[in-house]
Amino acid sequence: MSDDDDFMQDSEQEDYDFEYEDDEEEQDGDIGTENKYYNAKQMKADNPEEAIDEFLGVPALEEEKGEWGFRGLKQAIKLEFKLKRYAKAVEHYRELLTYVKSAVTRNHSEKSINNMLDFIDKAAEDAEANHCMEQFYALTLNSFQSTNNDRLWLKTNIKLARLWLERKEFRQLSGKLRELHKSCQTPTGEDDPAKGAYSLEAYALEIQMLAETRNNKRLKMLYQKALRVKSAVPHPKIMGIIRECGGKMHMSEENWKEAQSDFFESFRNYDEAGSLQRIQVLKYLVLTTMLMGSDINPFDSQETKPYKNDPRIAAMTDLVDAYQRDDIHGYEKILQNNKDLLEDPFIAENIDEVTRNMRTKAIVKIVAPYTRFTLDFISKQLKISLPEVQDIIGFLIVDKKLRGKMDQQNGIVEIESSTDMDRVQAVRDWSASIGKLWATVLNDGDGFKPDESPMVPSGGDKPLLGSSGGFTGSQGGRNTNGPGGRPRFGKGKGAPAKQPGGGLR
Fold it and tell me: What segments bear the compositional bias annotation Acidic residues (predicted)?
């Protein structure tokens, strides 16, 4: 949006009383000032140096500071900043701020200054430009603090805090954030509902700083506090920042489910705000899905589906596909061909865990048919180093996902037969069951009980074998059991006679 468009929008909000002047000289003066301004604008693209001189000549045509001089200075400052004439830009910006008290309305001056700072923020490309930007912020704060313009003072401080965050000047940033939090509070120390939007921006900046410095304890507290702010309708980009940092915090705690939820909300907010950061956060969402070991494709949702074939996200899409198919070679090839993925420190830090999971599953699959194999064999199959193979095999054995022993010196692994192990376990279970049954018989049963109606053959008094294959324990209706119900097997009445052949008669 151009400065003239800003001016027209601001003018629509003001009530103007038109006065018809008879002084033709004054009208001619205004026309001359306006013509000079527009002539300078026409020169801006082809001859910016001359355009600067023309713009700076506009204020000199005004007897008193007015609208055209204000606009001329704005254009000159922007061109000077582009041409890296930083000292001159600061000098003329200081002059521009003298117009805000009387020459232009409060609303117009506030919007114009804010747009000016946004322009400089986007145009800054080096350390010298950043230093110039700090001077702009300092001049703005001094000017508008004296005019009690809290809104612009807060906006400028937030821009300055953002600059220090980008430059990782955390000591200065911490002091500025304390100042911002205090200005967004009521005298009782609570968040001021009238400044909820600025309070959320301050929270977002501090949460980003805490994420950078890995202060997770305070980050968690501030993250929860930011989500409880209900006094303002937050800008979706601010909520995208807060949710993104929350997702990273949950990832550091290996809380994959909460991380996935936060990254999805962050993506949705960035997408609503039209921020390019949505692509990076979508990559984080895909990464979290793999760490969860989920079979759900993150591109199945209505919000993410349009980005499934986006070339910027293609590598992560292919990674998910390879991961869910357990295609270790395809997965490794994608990583090898897309090293730019690892340029993001967060992805580089967490992709190792996904890669290890893939390699672990691949090793279990490869060694399944073998009872004996070498570490070198696995290393060549997966094209990874011997120490890493040894580390993964050791983890699998300790975690009892692999039954075997590893000879580290000779690089040999011997797998115990699962059949033998199952047989041993079955025998153990059977022995335990027998022991329980024996204990039950001794402790709760009545032992061997005599039959109530013994079968005695007619014409004889020799007992028959009972149906259970033992003795009936009676003869002629007499109980031949000993004390405690135990049967007698000695000689005498009731005992079967022993024959010469050693059998039973």
Answer: 1-31
Report the C-alpha gap between 354 and 288 in whole angstroms: 9
Token pair, residue 25, equals 């000289």
Tokens of 101: 């008290």
Q: Where do the domains of the chain lie? A: 1-122+129-143+154-166
Number of residues written out for the chain: 505
Nearest alpha-carbon partner for 103 in 147, 143, 65, 59: 65
Q: Is the pLDDT assigned to residue 40 strictly greater than 70?
A: yes
CATH no. of 1-122+129-143+154-166 = 1.25.40
User: Got the DSSP string for 164-230?
Assistant: HHHTT-HHHHHHHHHHHHHHTB-TTSSBPGGGHHHHHHHHHHHHHHHHHHT-HHHHHHHHHHHHT--
Q: What is the pTM of this model?
A: 0.66
Q: Taken in order 226, 298, 330, 369, is the CA torsion positive or negative?
A: positive
Q: Which long-range contacts (CB under 8 A, 24 or more apart) does 222-231 make?
A: 223/249, 226/200, 229/191, 229/196, 229/199, 229/200, 229/203, 230/196, 231/191, 231/192, 231/193, 231/194, 231/196, 231/199
* Tens digits of residue pLDDT in 449-465: 555 544 545 444 544 44
Task: Provide the 10 A C-beta neighbour count for residue 151.
Answer: 13
The crossing angle, in degrees rounded to 10, of helices 314-324 and 328-337 is 160
